[in-house]
Amino acid sequence: xxxxxxxxxxxxxxxxxxxxxxxxxxxxxxxxxxxxxxxxxxxxxxxxxxxxxxxxxxxxxxxxxxxxxxxxxxxxxxxxxxxxxxxxxxxxxxxxxxxxxxxxxxxxxxxxxxxxxxxxxxxxxxxxxxxxxxxxxxxxxxxxxxxxxxxxxxxxxxxxxxxxxxxxxxxxxxxxxxxxxxxxxxxxxxxxxxxxxxxxxxxxxxxxxxxxxxxxxxxxxxxxxxxxxxxxxxxxxxxxxxxxxxxxxxxxxxxxxxxxxxxxxxxxxxxxxxxxxxxxxxxxxxxxxxxxxxxxxxxxxxxxxxxxxxxxxxxxxxxxxxxxxxxxxxxxxxxxxxxxxxxxx
Length: 345
Description:
Elements: H1 9-12, H2 16-31, E1 36-37, H3 38-44, H4 54-70, E2 75-79, E3 87-91, H5 93-96, H6 105-118, H7 121-136, H8 162-174, E4 177-182, E5 191-203, E6 206-213, E7 218-223, E8 232-234, H9 248-257, E9 263-270, H10 275-280, E10 282-289, E11 292-301, H11 304-312, E12 318-322, H12 324-344
Antiparallel strand pairs: 1-3, 2-3, 4-5, 4-8, 5-6, 6-7, 9-11, 9-12, 10-11
C-alpha cells in the first residue's frame, strides 16, 4: 500500500521538512532487503544529513521512530547480518500492508484512474530519488519493494503539465475543441494547433492526448510534455464527440512504436557508485574525472527526458560525456535542484 494510506492528518499538520524526512525514512525502510543501520540512514536518507552533531541526529531519529510507531507503522529492530551484530531497522511489510479490499466494478474503475495518476512520474519523483540515493550508497534495495521504482531510463515527469492535463480533461468532458502551442521536439519552435480531444492516456510512463487535428485534417497523438501551458477551449460545448470505433490505446501504441529509435550516450560513472546505471550500460573504458577514478559506459537512450532525470539523480557520481544535448539537460536539472535547495535553506 502507499504511504498516504497510513500517514494521516497527524503528519500533515507538522512542518513540511519533517513530513518529507519521515516519508523518505519509510521509503528506505520498506525498500531494503535487510536491516539498515542508523549511520547508513543518516548518510543516505534525505533530511538527516544536516544534523550538526551525532547527538542531534540521535535525538531526531529517536523522535521519528517513535512517531512512526505511534502511527502504527511496524518498525522492526534487528542485526544487520549474522556476521555484523550492529543494530539496524526495517519495516515489516506483511504487517504494514492492509488486507484485501472488495470493490464494485465502478469503484475499481475509479481506483484504476487514481492509480494512473499516482504512478505518473510527477508523483513518483520523490520515491525514485530516494531509492536511487540508497542504491548509489550501496544499500541492497529490493527490486520488488512496494514503492514505485524505475530502470536506468526513468519515466519523464509530468512536471509543468499538470494544468495542461486538467484543462484537457475538462474539455474532453465538455465535448469542446482546444487550441494550444505544440512542438515536435525541444529543438523545434511552437506552432498553434486546433484539436478535437478524444482522450488522454499513458503509454510506457508518458502522457498523450489523442484527437482530431483540424489543422492537419487527421487523427494525431500529442505528448503532453510537448504542449505549451496555454491550452484554450474553443467552440461550442458538446460539439466534439469521440467516434465510437476509435481505439485510443491502439492509436497511441502505434505512434509510440513509430517514434525515433534510441540514440547512444556515453556516461562516466564513479567507481563503486551508481550501480544500477552501470548495469544498464556497456563499459567502454576507464577515465579519471575531477580527481576521481571511474568507468565510461555506453547505453541506449530511448528518451532524453527519462535518461536525464535518471542520471541527474546520481549527482556527481554520473557525468554525461555525449551527446551534448543530454549533458545540457542533466546540468540544467542539477542547477535547478541546487537552487531549490538554497531556497529551502
